[in-house]
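Quick question, first post here. What does this chain look like in 3D?
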Amino acid sequence: MMTLLNRTLSAGLTLVALFGAPLAACGQPSSVETDRGAVQVDVVASGLESLWGFAFLPDGSILATELPGRLRMIHEGGHVMEAPIAGTPEVFARGQGGLLDVVLHPDFERNQLVYLTYAKPVDGNSTTAVARGRLDGMQLVDVADIFVADSRGRGHYGSRLAFDAEGYLFVTVGDRQANPNEDQANHPAQDRSNHHGTVNRLHDDGSIPADNPFVGQDGIEPSIWSYGHRNPQGMSWDPATGRLWINEHGPQGGDELNLVLPGRNYGWPVIGYGVNYGGNELHEGTHQEGMEQPVHYWVPSIATSGMLVYSGSAFPEWQGNLFVGGLNGEQVARLVLDGDQVVAEETIYRGHGRIRDIRQGPDGAIYLGIDGPADQAAIVRLTPAGNAR
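> Answer (accepted):
Ran it through. Tokens below.
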């Protein structure tokens, strides 16, 4: 039997011909204007609550996470299955905590493995954890934690996941809102004996690669790939260049785009381009020896979240561009790169919902995960105007 995705491709249709929901129900426009011309907007699914992440299954269905702790299956016609997928871990569903990112194993069609990040309850508090399970119909089986961060708090979970071309799994962990004003040199994000403010590199089973930069060094967590981050909620691997990119929330201003390199210190909270909430000075400065500079930063803050390095065919002129979601201002920033430098920025989508996640679909279109209550949270699809059916 042909899968939904195979039927879609063989018929020359787009996924939005199979999925769909009323635009007005989600407050979405029918199109938006960009530098390359009009882009059509189609709602793939609506009725979700506090959407955080989503991933495409090989049959064209979608897995989506909802912050309260539900993993949803979205089928043909935009139908969100009423019963969530069983077997997901218990989550700390308070404030920023809950069920967060979702990605598939690179060899999912063979092993059916799904990876979830979530706020794990720990003695009345919580930490960032990664659980792995096998999708069997409408349930996850053999679910187990493969990574539990030494990083407790009730916010700034980070929690983005990405596999690189070699099958290594990268996991972001935020600084857990540790006070940035006191003893900045010894702030938890500068202390590699824990996971606060880190990007971590793992094998697909959670074990530690022997070539991680701090393996074998006393007092340093061996999973750490880079550190000195604040709250990285966007991460994307560039298949064309082999680069790993993240974005991270600044305080009041100073959101950053960073090229992640092994063993590097990205400076939080010692250096940065924002100020503390209320406007008072926060950082020692913007530069310090031994600390990396962001490739790009935003003042004022756009509250960066999901991110995509685009490589699809629907928008060939945008290949290699970075797309960064903004919670503040409800926007998507398109960044043009020349090597490791941002040479142009365009806001291609604004004012239609908090952009929590951005993914490239199997059809080459750009999909946005829009956060919000059940009558506003949605997944929408962007295609060149006139090409969607």
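Helices lie at 4-10, 108-111.
The chain has one domain: 4-384.
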